[in-house]
Records
---
Amino acid sequence: MVEEFNLLVCGVGGQGVLTLSRIIALSALKSNFKVRVGETLGMSQRGGIVNSFVRFGKNVLSPLFEKGMADAVIALDYVEAARSLQYASKRTVFLVDSNTIPPLSTILGLESLPDLDHVKRFFKENAVKAYFFNAFSIASSLSLPTSNTVMLGVFGRLFQKIFDRNVLISALREIVPAKYVEKNIEAFQLGWRLMDDNVAF
């Protein structure tokens, strides 16, 4: 039994952050963990920053966790992955979609947008383990608008000692609208296989 697991799912509006976090939270409930979920939202429209904290384990009380306390971060946007480094410690694993939707701050000219290579170097310099995937291209090949269930497969593969694969699929079936379920299960399976050949930084 996992004592405590702290997961941050991050991205921007329109990338399916909340759907992904709710699938994982339901999977944790189905696995007999206590679960707490906390969400911090920017503008709800496309481009607003979205963070979802999912905590589960034997005795989890608060829905949020402090900086430096994440066990894993799933970033559906590489810019938000870099922004979330404050939650990392030496044990944290980052699973990052190597795509981005420019956040509102960059559209307004308040911040510059770092390129992917810069973000990869940033992780390496900070000695944080990070896997990068072109998950959005896989989702697009299935005519899906977001990569969230591809990244669910990646997460499930890496943490299969915690979550049974069939439990994750069962939770996906409950959360995703019925007409999109089969394509999302296919995306999950493709994400699961992505981990086979990927090497962390």
---
Amino acid sequence: MNSRRALLAAIGVSLAAPRAAWAQPARQARVVVLFAGDAEDDEPAVRPFFDEMRRLGWVEDRNIAYERLSGRGMRDYLEQLVSVAADRGPDLIFATSASIALAAIKVTDKLPVVFTTTSDPVTSGLVASLARPGRNATGVQRASGNVVARRFALLKEARPGVGRIGYLLDRRAPDYERQKQAHQDAAQRAKLELSLAEFTNYEAVAKLLAGFRRDGVTVVVVGSSLTLFARRRDIGMFAARNGLALVAHRVEWADAGALLTYGADIADSLRRGARIASRILKGAQPAAIAVEQSEKFELVLNLKTAGALGLTLPAALLKRAHRVID
């Protein structure tokens, strides 16, 4: 059995035996939605995309069929998965991260790809320019700006005495260099000592986190990473067992146990992505649709985690939070 057949066997009924939805009349649009981790776990986070598509008139099993595929947090597997999915000839691929979008455009330069990403789409190679993408991919960039500096300022409010923090960084992330520089610069301005731990595969993560704890680091910033995001619940449980406070850029990390998250409003970027996808399904060309910038930000605090760590979060900080998990 060659690797391609093995992949089909691993995916199972999702691809090897098409869902009934794929057999519907040709008037249905067919969209592949690629998740970083397990589809069942990640779909709630992407729900604003599906909800907005429905609001725009795309009703599942009526005029649109979705194929939800799980990337398992593994880039090599993801590329094979995209290749098999592309062979099915969908009308559009919706990529929920830069890594997934890059895997998609590596496989196909014909099928439209719509992405949402925190990475710079130009420097990562997704588009030629924000105004004129120029190829088969376009989407939404979740604005960064000084978001890292702001996140560190919020952390110092939550933990006034913190002086040293860990930073878990994926060397295979599309914007590895940008992430690294942004966190180093922000840490210097915030007068925080940044202990950097880099990895290339998930198997090293637990050891790195344990190393932070052993060295007396109790706050760990989680970098933007397909691999980390797909395993966020495992990482959250490990952090809880070891008394580590996680700080991250996406609200889903707070749901997985992070103490604090601050970053772009994910729901806003997903709704924007849906509007772009709708335009393409109606005939627009991705090459001519400008990449949108999502400028909304959200702060989420986890009181349950704070209590487990023996922390009392300031009332002023709680008041400014967009959401508090208790």
---
Amino acid sequence: MAEVSVLEVLLYEVPIGTLTRVAGDRTLFAFSEAYVADRNRVVLGLGFKDQLGELITEFRPTQTRLTPFFSNLLPEGHMRVYLAERARVNPAREFFLLRALGRDLPGAVTVRPADGEDWPQGARDDGDHERPGRNPHDNALRFSLAGVQLKLSAISDARGGLTIPAKGVGGSWIVKLPSREFQRLPENEFSMMTLASLIGMDVPAMQLIDIEAIGNLPEGMGALAGRALAIERFDRAQDGSAVHIEDFAQIFGVYPEDKYRRASYRNIASVVGAEGSSEDVAEFVRRLTFNTLIGNADMHLKNWSMIYPDRRRAALAPAYDFVSTIAYLTDRGAALNFSRTKLFSEFSYDELGHLAAKALLPEKLVLETARETVALFHQHWQAEKANLPHSADVVRAIDDHVRTIPLA
């Protein structure tokens, strides 16, 4: 197999640019001339706009890694290692990992070899030879879902169950598997997302499903016990076509390992206010308030996204990854600064007012939405906390935590 040095980047299946690997394991990204010249172009990402709203076309080369936008399309941690092993790719060399997984990525981006060859069945990690070992066609998974947690892309079968696609690509559901570290994590997330939906937030369809009921689970994953959380993908339309999204690590040009450090909720609010509608702003405040009330200390940059329903205008994407982390870890602060502080105990109407002023948001809308969210949280939490499938430890942790928040 000849060395592949150029990957073609497609958006909605239309070529818009290339990723080129050159000497020294460096990678260069460039938009195509046609994409640059198209004044009605579809939007790849907000981070590709300059201060005047014009398309940025000059990019620095990266070494071993890709630029943050493309790096954030790849999984992290154990999931990256798991998929890289099955694709026979060094997980640190992102050009080859993206080449292996590029047929099924978050949003409407896909990546394929530019030499006319189809997506690889057995990827190589160095351009010279394949790594030794098992047949690359066996049990290969060819999708990428960003994040650390073990998760799979699944399709709904004729009986209403879920099956992992035989060829490792496709699917309109995300299946989040049980954690070996955190007890009943899928039940925790299902409960918090259900509560958010009752309060009025934009939450995708979801269900808890027994591991044994999932068809075609990859090798090793069938050994997990308990229930998984299945969530309908909001980056896939009913007809299976892709809907473009990008997370805020991509928007801010931040690598995944910096998702807790390089920005604040105030920064996210500024983008939502500038690019979205007043309802997007209200939804942002609902989610921020709610996740503070449940003690979610893991709402980092990759847990907020924008979506492009008409391919050009950005809006706040549906909610995801709502978990009460204080049930497992005694965090006293949020993943990011609110405006001046990240301490839960300092989340007050004064702090929200400061966020609104600095992010250029209507203060009345921000504060009234927060008050409404607090009231609805107390109403639905008291009514449902004994009925949701989370553990008693989650109930105790949230009840204790809410008493420490000034806004509550």
---
Amino acid sequence: MKKYAMLDSQALAGADFGVEKKILEEAGIECAIGECRTTEEMVRLAADADAIGLCYVDMNGKLMDSLKKCKLLVRYGIGYDSINVPEATARGIAVCNLPDYCQPDVATHAFAMILDCCRKITLQDRLMRGGKYLTTYGYRIHRLSTLKMGFAGFGAIAKTLARYMKPYQMDMLAFDPYLPEEVFAQNGVRQAGFEELLAQADIISVHSPYTPETHHMFCKASFAKMKDGAIIVNTARGPIICLDDLAEALKNGKLAAAGLDTMEGEPNVPPGHPIFACESAILTPHCAFNSAEAELEQHQKVAKSVIEFLGGNIPYNCVNKKQLQK
């Protein structure tokens, strides 16, 4: 019997792993759901597994060598930077992610953060709870129709967000060097270079994948090129924004506000980090993906990927498909 093992189910506290367990076992595949925190626990659970699922496990070559039967790794999410894909490919291991399971949910979260920052909802709520009734406190706010909306990365989530924002009649521009020119016009945005994005956008929503090239894509140097009083929102990956530099830009007033669902160093950002003292920073715990519908879809898509691969086919969501087929 083939076996599937999920290594770190504790990373998705409260999730119903019975969904994939039922689907896989009905397909004749053993399913083991673990809460592994050490390499030894992972090897004990999954040494005989043909397919392995993970959230935040650092899946490096050394660990792969300890999981000798594994031929498929499935990341419970869109990003897969926790998996060393070249090392997996060198070992003939397929790597799958879930590129399309929570697009409307993340786009909605980003949109909510943008509206919150633009209208100072959370900031005013904090003031009210502290006994302060100050209608014009803090940075100046503007009608959405007067603002330029920028996207750093223009994949599926950013495209969805652009559709959500279209009725607000904002001028929208996007930076993404990997897309053909026609994609931008088809989605109602202007194509822009990175420098143009920084100089023109009043709001920037980050949707780039995390790669060595995008590490600290937003830092002191890039903040200096942004408009005074601009807003930045990140629902992508934390290290795309230098957290220290962002806190400083908010503190000195260069940026008006920030909405962060992901932060550099999460989930272990020190409680004393300056970002927590920034009153115009809205912080959520990497939960933009979350909805009842997305959760069900997440588990179903993992199971489908495993069944398809163990059935002899390479799934559509295999990120190293071309390399494996060479």
